[in-house]
Each structure stands twice: as C-alpha cells, then as structure tokens.
Design a protein that fits this description.
CATH architecture of the largest domain in chain B: 3-Layer(aba) Sandwich
Largest sheet of chain B: 7 strands, parallel
Largest interface: A-B, 77 and 96 residues
CATH superfamily of chain A: HUPs
Shape of chain B: globular
Structural class of chain B: alpha/beta
Number of strands of chain B: 18
Low-confidence stretches of chain A: none
Shape of chain A: globular
Helix content of chain A: 25-40%
Distance between the termini of chain A: 53 Å
CATH class of the largest domain in chain B: Alpha Beta
Oligomer: heterodimer
CATH topology of the largest domain in chain B: Rossmann fold
Low-confidence stretches of chain B: none
Strand content of chain A: 25-35%
CATH architecture of chain A: 3-Layer(aba) Sandwich
Number of helices of chain B: 8
Radius of gyration of chain A: 21 Å
Strand order of the largest sheet of chain B: 7-11-6-1-4-5-12
Strand order of the largest sheet of chain A: 11-10-9-12-8-1-6-7-13
Mean pLDDT of chain A: 97
Distance between the termini of chain B: 51 Å
Structural class of chain A: alpha/beta
Number of helices of chain A: 6
Order of helices and strands of chain B: EEEHEEHEHEEEEEEEEHEHEHEHEH
Number of domains of chain B: 2
Largest sheet of chain A: 9 strands, mixed
Bound molecules: flavin-adenine dinucleotide, adenosine monophosphate
Number of domains of chain A: 1
CATH topology of chain A: Rossmann fold
Strand content of chain B: 25-35%
Order of helices and strands of chain A: EEEEEHEHEHEHEEEEHEEEH
Chain lengths: 248, 317
C-alpha cells in the first residue's frame, strides 16, 4: 500500500498575523512554521498503516526550500520519503494540480490531505485533487479502516457522523478524530537521526497557473472594551443581550 | 447568465442557511441582472423560497434515499449550472456545503472561493472578501475565471426577504454510480448542531470535570443553543471531539457565543471570532477572554450559570 500525505507549512497557532507591503503580503518575520495540525493527524494515521500493514508513506509539500524543516520533521515522525514540489503556492487549485502531477507519476492507493490548512483555510485541495483525478473524496474524516482493498470510513457531518464504504484509490481529508491528540508522534532522537538518511526529493514541474489571487489582506476591526455585569445582577446581562445586542 | 444556489434541507425542511444563501444569491443576481436558480433535494415546501427572491427551483427527488450522495448531488447541481448557463454557484459553509464546493468547481470549470463573508466588491473580474488565518484576518480575493463557486460563511449575510414568482421543477438527473456508499447515518436529531446554531454555549477546563457539564447543557437547553468546548476538554475525553471549537476544531459563526470557564487562548479565540456577540463567564478578571468579549461576568461559574439558566427559564414562561 502506498500512501501520500500532503503537508502544508503553516504559521504556528500562537502566531500574531501581520501583513506588509501595503497589506498585500503576509509578514513571516518572527513567525514559526509548523505542520498543519490536520495534516499531522493524517500523518499519524498513515504511520499506523505503515506499522500494521507495511504501507509506504510519502509526504509531499508544494513550496520553496523554507518548507524543508517540516518535511524533515515528517521523516523523523516516521515517513519513508519526502517530496518537495518546488513552486510557490498561490491558491488551492494550483496546489491541487501540482499534487495531481505527482499522483499521476507515482502509484498511490491512498492520498491524505488535511480537512483544511489553518492559514488559507481553503478546505479545497483534497476535493479538487480527487475530482480532477476522478477518484472519490471523503472530507472531515474521523475514521479509516482498511481491509484489503476495502475501506470503511467515517465523515463528521453537522450534528453527527456518516459511515461510508469505499475502495482504493481515494483521497481523504483528515482531522482530529482520525487519531487523537495523545496519539500524535513526537520525534525521538533515533527518528531524527534516521530522517537525515531518508530521501528528500525536489521536483520542479512545469508551471501551473492559479485561478485566484489575493489583492489585499485586512485585520478584523478592533473591538471596544467588554461590558462587565455584576454577578449579583444577572438580569442586567439578560436585558443587554435582549435589548442592546438583540441576540436573544 | 444566472446565479445558482444550493438550498440545503434536513428531512425536507429548508435550513436557515438555505434561506440565507437565497438572500445572498438574490443580491448578487440583482447586481448582475439575472435569474436566481435554487437547487434542492426532497424539499417539502419549495414555495417558501418565493419570500427570498428565488425565480426557479429544481427540487430533485431522490426517492427514499435520504443520504447525502456526493456524486449524485454534485452531478445534479452541475447539470443545472450547465443548463441554466450559470456563472456563479453558491454553497453554504456547512459540512455538506464545503464538501460540494471544491468538487463542483472542478465539474463546472470554475474557481472556488471559500469562507466568503460579504457581497462581491466587483463582478468583472469577480472580487470578494473572505476570511483566512482562521478568522485572524480577511483577504480580498480576485478570480481569473469566468465561472465561480463561492462558499458563504454562515451568518455573515443574514436573511433578507424579497418576494418572487417561483417556478418549481422536479427534474431527476441520473443517479450516480459512485463507488462511495453511505452505509449508516448517526445524527442526533433533537440536538442543535454547532454549524446551524444561532447560539452556542461553550465550556472550558474551568468546569473541573465532565460531571459538571449539566451547567452547560441546562443553559443551552433553555436558550435552544448548541454545546461546545475548548480543546483540552475534548482531549481529556470530558466531551466528544465533535464539540471542540477553535483554530484546530470547529469554527463558530453564531450570533451569540457564551464561554464559561474558558480562558480565551489565541487558538480558541481564532475559531470563535466571527461570532457576532461574545459573552464570557470566568472567575479570573485577568483571563484573556475578557479582551475579546462584548459582555462579561467575573464570577464563579458554579454560582452564576445556574442563576442565569433559572432566570432565562422564568423569562420564557
Ligand atoms: C497547536 C495547538 C492548537 C490548539 N487549538 C485549540 C483550539 O482549536 N481550541 C481551543 O480551545 N484550544 C486550542 N488550543 C489550546 C489552547 O492553547 C488552550 O490551552 C485552551 O484553549 C485552554 O482551554 P480552557 O480555556 O478550557 O482551559 P484553561 O486555559 O485552563 O482555562 C480555564 C479557565 O477557567 C477559569 N475558571 C476556573 N474555575 C472557574 C470557575 N469556578 N468559574 C469560572 N471560571 C473558572 C479560569 O480562570 C481559566 O481562565 C491549542 C493549542 C495548541 C498548542
Ligand atoms: N502547499 C501545499 N503543499 C502540500 N499540500 C498542501 C498545500 N497546501 C494545502 N495542502 C493540503 O491540502 C489540505 C487543505 O488545504 P486548503 O485547501 O488550503 O485548506 C491541507 O491540509 C494539506 O493537506
């Protein structure tokens, strides 16, 4: 079984988000980058498939050389091989098309993307990739069991979950639930040493154009100060919610 | 030219997001001077959409098959888009809406723009504001495609009534032959989901343990609210992970968000930021949530919450 885990390089969750060049460019100064949390859940699930079923796990990212540290981390976590598609991603469509090229030149049974990236929040790469490749896609995936060629999956839906059966090849959108927080693998010394020996391939495909472009960024408006209500005067809160905020 | 909106329903009843999408779609079709076409599945009362300016509704009957069959749904909507020569397709930000969006965009050769929070600022080329960095920022996105699929962030536009003479068609487009089969659906029909809720009541580690969650549930019940929790609460297994909200959990865009015993870490706030009104109940006046909230009570949840629940109950009677 060959598994591809698509990794997005995103700002650490504690990052303050700032822009430069008249709010047209995300300012990476002082920002620490991490594996997109949804992708990390997916990677852990893939490593379990490696341990139990002997799956071969490839991680791939579309990005410049600054993405290599997180790919190295994926190798230290246990991935067998890393591929960097050397291009500057501009939108989810373009990323999906680069990944599609990678897919067509390899032999993957299972492609794991994250439910969404926490920077762009497109929630689109997996769906576009799968539909372009004419294979099924299951987003918000909270369970994946493999038995031979047959798969059982669960998709989280609003207010519940849906169980599905499918077969390879397939693309899934991983999120927490696929594995739990406590299952995430923290690289140990041995993993880190081994990662140095593992292949990091860089491929430079033909340029693919994007479909959307960001004109300008904007930060949410500053909020006024909180209105405090005395805990002994709860009626006041109800009154404010009813007549001032008009939300109840 | 036309605008197509996917009208979501549950057991045949149109969801609030369906009416919001119709309202939003109407404004766009007015600006573009074209028809607003709805596509729904098994809708019981299609006429109600005439209050929101829908000119035509394709109400597709799936005959007893109530599962969300992605292949069938996306193919049917794509057929309508082609038939009506539509160039804007709008889906909601529900789990199903966000499932459809990217898939549809490939099927109708469109660009996909998610998390849209406003009407387009420009139509040629289409330019629209969306949220990014999990609500820590917005960006103005411009499309280079003629066709576009937008996913509208919930509660960002609201409901706007406008009457129309709706024509309803019950066409069936060929059922799908997908290898993906839904085998079971497990959905609590008596509970409001976070995505659909106008009000969300959320609990954090300050509640000390799962046995105290009656505080959250009782308050949510009187308010008709959905329940949510912070990440550590779901990591510790006090609550199901489906209630985890924040940057790495579910996004919340409700009208009212009430946080109880939640400190207001940056990752928590990011995910709930787009809620309109935020209330915090916390015994530590230094808790960061007070900087993000509109209303706050500095007090012990175990005293304040039961009182609030009781007063709201009395008010309802
Ligand atoms: C990669 C990453 C991703 C993350 N993603 C998320 C996310 O998506 N969502 C999320 O929520 N967190 C997320 N976090 C965790 C986040 O950093 C915080 O740790 C978490 O939000 C804190 O949860 P809490 O507010 O429930 O607990 P605490 O921070 O422990 O806060 C408990 C609060 O309860 C108050 N309290 C205590 N007793 C009472 C009482 N009797 N009455 C009233 N108040 C009381 C305390 O004053 C305190 O403010 C993430 C962290 C990381 C590293
Ligand atoms: N630059 C990238 N390289 C590789 N995979 C990516 C990249 N960007 C996004 N992805 C994958 O697509 C998923 C969804 O991203 P998005 O559509 O941006 O929300 C992520 O969780 C990743 O798995």
């Amino acid at each position: 079984m060959n598994v591809l885990v698509c990794i997005s390089n995103v700002p650490d969750t504690t990052s303050k988000i700032n822009f430069k060049d008249e709010n047209t460019v995300f300012d990476i100064q002082g920002v620490q980058f991490i594996i997109n949390p949804n992708d990390e859940f997916g990677l852990t699930r893939a490593i379990w498939l490696q341990q139990k079923e002997g799956a071969k796990v490839t991680v791939a990212t579309v990005g410049d050389v600054s993405c290599e540290p997180i790919l190295r981390k994926c190798l230290a976590i246990g991935a067998d091989r890393a591929v960097r598609v050397d291009a500057k991603p501009q939108d989810g469509f373009q990323v999906a098309m680069y990944l599609a090229t990678l897919y067509k030149n390899s032999d993957f049974d299972l492609v794991i993307t994250g439910r969404e990236s926490i920077d762009y929040n497109g929630g689109m790469v997996g769906g576009i990739l799968a539909t372009h490749l004419e294979i099924p896609y299951v987003p918000n995936c909270i369970q994946l069991e493999v038995s031979g060629k047959n798969l059982t999956l669960q998709r989280e839906i609003d207010g519940g979950k849906e169980s599905l059966t499918a077969s390879f090849p397939i693309v899934i959108g991983a999120q927490k639930g696929l594995v739990e927080e406590k299952d995430l693998i923290i690289p140990n010394m041995r993993g880190i040493m081994q990662a140095r020996q593992k292949p990091m391939e860089v491929i430079s495909p033909e340029a693919i154009s994007c479909e959307t472009s960001v004109q300008r960024f904007e930060k949410p408006a500053e909020k006024g100060p909180v209105k405090l209500v005395d805990p002994e005067k709860i009626d006041e809160l109800i009154e404010l919610l009813e007549n001032e905020a008009k939300v109840i | 030219m036309a605008v197509v909106v996917f009208i979501e329903s549950q057991e045949g009843e149109i969801k609030k997001a369906g009416f919001e999408l119709a309202s939003y779609g109407r404004s766009i079709s007015d600006a573009m001077k074209c028809d607003l076409i709805g596509v729904g599945f098994n809708i019981i009362d299609p006429k109600s959409l005439s209050n929101y300016g829908v000119d035509k509704l394709y109400n597709i009957e799936t005959r007893g098959d109530s599962f969300f069959d992605i292949e069938r749904y996306s193919s049917s909507i794509a057929s309508v888009v082609k038939k009506e020569n539509a160039n804007i397709v709008i889906v909601s930000s529900s789990a199903d809406g966000r499932y459809l969006g990217p898939i549809l965009s490939v099927k109708v050769d469109a660009a996909y723009i998610s998390n849209v929070v406003e009407l387009p600022s420009q139509y040629e080329p289409l330019t629209v504001k969306r949220s990014c960095f999990t609500n820590k920022a917005f960006n103005e996105t411009q499309s280079s495609k003629k066709n576009n699929v937008l996913s509208l962030s919930s509660n960002s536009f609201g409901l706007k009534e406008k009457s129309s003479n709706i024509k309803v068609f019950s066409e069936d487009f060929a059922p799908s032959s997908s290898t993906l089969k839904v085998s079971n659906l497990d959905k609590a029909s008596d509970k409001v989901s976070i995505a659909d809720a106008d009000i969300v009541v959320s609990g954090g580690r300050g509640l000390k343990g799962p046995e105290n969650w009656y505080l959250i549930e009782d308050l949510a019940e009187v308010m008709g609210a959905a329940t949510a929790c912070s990440k550590p609460v779901s990591d510790m297994g006090w609550r199901s992970h489906s209630e985890h909200v924040g940057q790495t959990g579910k996004p919340v865009a409700s009208n009212l968000y009430i946080a109880i015993g939640v400190s207001g870490a940056i990752q928590h706030l990011a995910g709930i930021n787009s809620s309109k009104v935020k209330v915090v109940i916390n015994n530590d006046p230094e808790a960061p949530f007070f900087k993000a909230a509109d209303y706050g009570i500095v007090g012990d949840a175990f005293e304040v919450v039961p009182k609030l629940t009781k007063k709201l109950k009395a008010r309802k009677l």
